[in-house]
Design brief:
The complex is a heterodimer of chains A (561) and B (448).
Chain A (H helix, E strand, L loop, with lengths): L10 E11 L4 E11 L2 E3 L7 E4 L3 E5 L1 E6 L4 H9 L8 E2 L8 E2 L6 H10 L2 E9 L4 H9 L5 E7 L4 H8 L3 H15 L3 E5 L3 H7 L19 H15 L6 E3 L9 H9 L6 E3 L7 E2 L7 E2 L1 H9 L4 E4 L6 E7 L2 H11 L3 E5 L7 E7 L4 H16 L6 E2 L13 H9 L1 H10 L2 H5 L13 H16 L15 E5 L4 H6 L3 E4 L2 E5 L2 E2 L7 E3 L8 H12 L17 E3 L12
Parallel strand pairs in A: 1-4, 1-5, 6-9, 9-10, 10-11, 11-12, 12-13, 13-16, 16-20, 25-26
Antiparallel strand pairs in A: 1-2, 2-3, 5-21, 7-8, 14-15, 17-19, 18-19, 21-22, 22-23, 23-24
Chain B lengths: L1 E2 L4 E7 L11 E6 L4 E6 L3 H9 L8 E3 L2 E3 L1 H14 L3 E5 L5 H13 L3 E4 L6 H10 E5 L1 H7 L2 E5 L3 H4 L2 H7 L15 E6 L11 E4 L5 H12 L8 H5 L3 H13 L2 E6 L1 H4 L5 H14 L4 E6 L6 H12 L5 E2 L6 E2 L6 H6 L5 E5 L3 H4 L2 H9 L2 E5 L4 H5 L2 E4 L10 E3 L5 E3 L11 H19 L9
Parallel strand pairs in B: 7-8, 7-17, 10-11, 10-13, 11-12, 13-14, 17-18, 18-19
Antiparallel strand pairs in B: 1-2, 2-3, 3-4, 5-6, 5-19, 8-15, 15-16, 20-21
Helix pairs in contact in B: 2-18, 3-13, 3-18, 4-12, 8-10, 8-12
Classes of the chains: A alpha/beta (561), B alpha/beta (448).
Chain lengths: 561, 448
């Protein structure tokens, strides 16, 4: 059937597809799906356009809860690696802009590649407040997908001062102000406490959650507690999103457990938890503590995490964790970017390649798989590669195959450093194979629920008509790489594997209430210590273009199960 | 914005886009009747001239072959030129908004042309060096708050970026620099004693063309290698001076190396930029050190950013195969013109007609040129189609990126009867799409 010229939403009936909609308890039932304009509806008129999905798998569009796709650090990493783009060109089509690929695709290519994989929402996970305007400009040029970002507040000097002085009410107001001023979705913490030592004490780092952060008379644990509590109180749609201290260091599982305990039953999201699940002595080779971390998350329903799976091949360490990037520069000998942001953040970038035969890389790969395979609640241990840190988001289909296909997994396990495998449970020929329903949870329904996106990640009446239709194929990597149809907001973007339309997605953001008087406390700090005027700092609405405010949710603390 | 009289108005927190400092603390007094800025509080000498010079001239909105035309007529003429060209090029972009730059890249993509910015004739070598070695860098507020060692190399900010010293890097007090200038040690390295020299505690008079050797010697000394005293003969700087400087570099708490076109546009070019970036990187084994090119035009940093996020490459980008390719020397404008390859040019907010090499200008005179500028320039003189556009930051809002990649939103002072660059480029793109669609047999449907 030809779809040319019929790209607008209006009424569509997807017929006879095998539907995986775990949020609504639909597990592979053959049924029709009706779409009116941008939403899923109960019924459409008989003359609605039909998409025959007989024999195909229908899922909600994918939702990436943690990736790095836009903004100052992404653009630096993009500019840094022309060598990575020459062999991966993205020509324009009658519908789409041209671009470049590689590990950090251009903005257009980023949107198209997510869409071409059946993903329709992605959240940029680390944005300096002063860089928010830049992020919004890039997201405006990232087509098709809906998108939002998490604002970095965990090393914010002004907020540290409020905490140090015990001004918790004002801290709460200031956090809410910053989320509004930047158009962010939630608050991100990265290696809390480290920036002051990195910038101010000759590239030092902080390793102990109970150590004083230089002159602040404040510990990382104080900071973590304050943010978890405040973000929960503010009722943001997604809780504090934490990149724990000591990423990548042997023995860091202890820090990760301490960070999760600090939540005391409150909601919190632990980012790329694979990178934080290591045993062993600091400075020596790591071992796996993946099972222990998985257990803790399994028994604490207040916690969500994304895995941050390592995939072999090209990656780029790109992080607000500047000391980590400096460490990786030493390990890899590669070119290095460091970028300090006044009063707000550090940043480091290093091109990196994960190799199967290298003990540490193979161990990291294996720990990610352990976390997935030991997860008892797919709603809370979610799919990510921490793109591009563990590998490109375009590796998700291969990762899905590793989870769904025991034989393939065992073949892959045999290819990698066996000393590393022996430190994990992967050598035990684990029987678990993810089902299509579980894949739909870790890549769609789960992230949407963790993000508080009530209209995404499912196909019930009222859901956004972001829908992916795959041709069933026993090679799950092939199947998830090339959906037959992708609909965004009810618009047929991809049909018969090819782009049939372009589309501008929405910026998703939160607007927690705050007392405007807080600006009186913040303004003098700007005059003294920032290099731009306070009045020029907050991002105006005109950078939002097509956007949607996502309402908050207050969820009480819960006890472990 | 506050009213201070019937026809006078003050625009607070306005931004000066004259140089890469992009100071956002201007309070502009605007005479709305005369359509001019009568006072620019906080502006430097360059900024005051920038604001004072921009008035609304009684000129036509466009000229075609020197004759007055409407904007619509000029858009049609420009679109016809570009649609008929085999290798149309776009150049300039450093003195316009990111919003206009986005449209320019879209046009290059659409017409399978070439796009390049003034970066290719200023800090292009720094962009190339960045791709080779990376960069340790910082926003200017971090320099203000922390830098106790400030080194300028191959630049003369006192004349080119007057407030670089006073607002960001030398005199201001900062969080860990409570006494301002007294808490900083300032070094200036250049081939002549410029008006910037008096600000320095140490001035290094470098032999012309010897920057690379001197920077490489510093790298060696940082790493504890021996340097022969003949370094003085080759570079002009005694070994003992270098040793003392290296000691200071390694023992400071937060050091910064600013560098200018004295490094990037002299013998060595991207090797020079690479050497200074690598020196800063090396010093991070001992202390915290950053480096930063002191960029020139108001939004040249925005141009680098926009072209990078849309194509993956910062300048010198060619779309003739339908996707972006990067090759400085091949796809940079001076080269494309000097070799006589371009057959039409769209010049946006820059004046290659006055500052390019003779051979490049001669070719510009041979081909149809379209220009967008707020003023008459040598380039508008030679243009087939010249648009007069509103001035960014004075008549139009939009986004500019400071030299340290900090984006700032412009607050216009008064309206212009002329359209902004973004408006003209968007209309041109839309018309060009129609023409190219006809030419390509309806292949273009709806691109972003």
């Amino acid at each position: 059937m030809s779809h040319t010229g019929r790209t607008m939403g209006s009424a569509i009936r997807i017929t006879n597809g095998r539907v995986y909609d775990p949020a609504n308890g639909v597990d592979g039932c053959v049924q029709d799906l009706c779409i009116q304009d941008a939403k899923v509806v109960a019924e459409v008129p008989a003359d609605a356009r039909k998409i025959d999905a007989t024999g195909m798998v229908v899922m909600p569009g994918g939702v990436d809860i943690h990736c790095h796709i836009a903004g100052p650090k992404v653009n630096l990493a993009r500019k840094l690696q022309p060598e990575d783009k020459r062999l991966d060109v993205v020509p324009s089509t009658p519908y789409t802009r041209s671009g470049s690929g590689g590990i950090i695709p251009s903005t257009f290519a980023t949107g198209y590649r997510y869409a071409a994989m059946g993903y329709t929402t992605a959240m940029e996970a680390a944005v300096t407040p002063i860089g928010a305007r830049h992020v919004l400009e890039e997201l405006h040029d990232t087509p098709i997908i809906d998108k939002g970002f998490y604002v970095l507040l965990g090393n914010n000097v002004f907020l540290y001062r409020l905490l140090k002085e015990g001004r918790r009410e004002e801290f709460r107001e200031a956090v809410a102000w910053w989320v509004n001023a930047t158009k962010a979705y939630t608050v991100k913490l990265v290696n809390p406490g480290s920036d002051e030592l990195w910038k101010g004490r000759r590239n030092a780092n902080i390793s102990d959650l109970n150590e004083n952060i230089d002159q602040f008379d404040l510990t990382p644990l104080d900071v973590i507690r304050a943010f978890i509590e405040t973000v929960n109180d503010l009722g943001l749609p997604h809780p504090a999103h934490i990149h724990c201290n000591n990423l990548g260091h042997s023995g860091n599982a202890t820090t990760t457990l301490d960070t999760m305990r600090a939540a005391e039953g409150r909601r919190v999201h632990i980012a790329h938890v694979q990178f934080h699940s290591y045993g062993g002595e600091p400075g020596k080779n790591p071992t796996s503590r993946g099972p222990e971390i998985a257990d803790y998350i399994n028994s604490h329903p207040n916690i969500t995490a994304d895995v941050g799976q390592v995939m072999f091949g090209k990656a780029t360490a790109m992080t607000a964790d500047a000391p980590l990037a400096h460490l990786l520069k030493g390990v890899s000998g590669n070119k290095w970017v460091n970028a300090d942001t006044e009063n707000e953040s550090g940043c480091g970038i290093v091109p990196f390649t994960y190799q199967e035969k290298v003990y540490v890389h193979a161990l990291q790969w294996a720990i990610g798989l352990e976390l997935f395979l030991l997860s008892k609640d797919p709603w809370r241990i979610l799919l990510s590669t921490d793109h591009p840190n563990g590998g490109s988001f375009t590796m998700y289909p291969k990762l899905i195959r590793l989870l769904m296909d025991r034989e393939f997994r065992n073949d892959e396990i045999r290819k990698v450093n066996q000393r590393a495998i022996r430190k994990t449970i992967l050598g035990d020929d684990l029987a678990r194979e993810y089902t299509l329903s579980e894949i739909a949870i870790i890549s769609r329904a789960g992230p949407a629920r963790a993000l508080g996106l009530k209209d995404k990640g499912h196909l019930g009446v009222g859901a956004d008509a972001d829908i992916t239709i795959y041709e069933d194929d026993p090679d799950r990597e092939k199947m998830f790489s090339t959906p037959r149809y992708v609909l965004k907001d009810g618009k047929l973007i991809i049909a018969d594997h090819e782009f049939r339309a372009d589309h501008e997605g929405r910026i998703l953001h939160a607007t927690p209430a705050y007392d405007p008087d807080i600006e009186k406390a913040i303004r003098p700090f700007f005059e003294d210590y920032y290099s731009i005027r306070f009045d020029n700092y907050a991002v105006s609405d005109r950078y939002l273009h097509n956007h949607q405010v996502i309402p908050g949710q207050i969820i009480p603390a819960v006890q472990p199960q | 914005m506050s009213e201070i009289g019937q026809n006078l108005r003050v625009v607070e927190h306005a931004t000066c886009t004259f140089c890469g400092c992009v100071c956002d603390d201007m309070d502009l007094t605007v005479d709305l009747d005369a359509k001019r800025i009568t006072k620019a509080k906080n502006a430097c000498t360059l900024g005051r001239a920038w604001f004072a010079e921009h008035t609304i001239e009684d000129k036509p909105p466009a000229r075609i072959d020197g004759k007055p035309a409407t904007t619509a007529e000029a858009i049609e003429a420009a679109a016809q030129i570009l649609a008929g060209a085999r290798l149309p090029i776009i150049y300039g972009l450093s003195d316009t908004t990111c919003e206009a730059q986005r449209q320019a890249v879209a046009i290059a993509d659409l017409m399978h042309g070439n796009i390049d910015t003034t970066t290719s004739v200023c800090h292009g070598p720094s962009g190339i060096a960045f791709q080779g070695v990376g960069e340790s860098t910082a926003t200017l507020g971090e320099i203000k708050n922390r830098a106790d060692l400030v080194i300028y190399w191959g630049g003369n900010p006192a004349e080119s970026h007057p407030r670089h010293f006073t607002r960001y890097a030398v005199t201001p007090k900062g969080m860990y620099i409570p006494n301002g200038r007294k808490d900083r040690y300032v070094v200036l390295a250049d081939v002549r004693r410029t008006p910037s020299a008096p600000v320095a505690d140490l001035f290094l008079l470098v032999k012309p063309g010897r920057d690379f050797e001197l920077l490489w010697a510093l790298r060696a000394l940082v790493k504890g290698r021996k340097i022969d005293p003949s370094i003085e003969e080759s570079t002009g700087i005694p070994l003992a001076t270098l040793e003392t400087l290296v000691e200071r570099m390694k023992s400071c708490r937060y050091g910064v190396l600013f560098f200018g076109m004295g490094l990037t546009m002299t013998r060595g070019r991207h090797f020079n930029s690479g050497a200074i970036l690598a020196l800063a990187t090396d010093l991070n084994e001992y202390t915290h050190f950053v480096a930063k090119p002191v960029r020139g035009h108001g939004n040249v940093t925005g141009a680098d950013n926009v072209v990078s996020w849309q194509t993956g490459y910062p300048f010198g980008v060619n779309f003739s195969r339908g996707y972006p390719r990067f090759n400085p020397g091949e796809f940079t404008t001076v080269d494309l013109l000097s070799r006589g390859e371009a057959d039409a040019a769209l010049i946006i907010a820059s004046d290659p007609g006055s500052n390019f090499p003779k051979r490049a200008i001669e070719h510009l005179k041979r081909i149809p040129v379209i220009v967008l500028d707020a003023k008459d320039t040598d380039t508008t003189e030679l243009a087939r189609v010249a648009f007069r556009t509103a001035t960014y930051g004075i008549n139009t809002t939009g986004t500019v990126y400071r030299m340290d990649d900090v984006p700032i939103t412009l607050r216009p002072a008064f309206d212009s009867p002329f359209p902004g660059d973004e408006e003209v480029l968007t209309a041109l793109k839309d018309r060009l799409r129609v023409l190219l669609n006809e030419k390509r047999g309806g292949a273009l449907r709806k691109a972003a």
